[in-house]
């Protein structure tokens, strides 16, 4: 299921806020804009929107840049609104296409634990394709914030021996160290373990028996 994409939006002039507030209210189903007054930094990564001093709107992603001229009568200009709608929809689709294809569950939460994106992938529950992601539990978010690596991994019960599932949580922070949200993904360890064991020639043995042959300890899974 798709949710509004949270985007930073950079601008220079106070008057620019009028346009950006109109943009947010008109396309809130696509984007949740975080207004930042200032210039886009050189180390800004990912995707963002910016409004330059020439009254041009830039829609930027790693794979695409779209530049639109903003007329003075933007809110009443039917031709501009149509063009803007088409470009914003295309931009939204570019940002969401690849995660949607991932077979395992990927979820982004904002700083309040609200879901901002859920690809409805497999999470060990065979009915996950028609279930909406839930609010991130407070104790998980607090544990991520307090961890030195801002990371938490939990095992996921699976009804089948065909999967060994874990749920991996990563805290997201901006360049100033401010908490921005959480990324969660479900990972199937079984194919990874099988590939490792085949390449290394090792084998899994019981935890109580680590002297009779090669074994894998917990250190393998530590960062």
TrEMBL record:
Protein's recorded name: Na+ driven multidrug efflux pump
Provenance organism: Streptococcus pluranimalium
Lineage: Bacteria, Bacillati, Bacillota, Bacilli, Lactobacillales
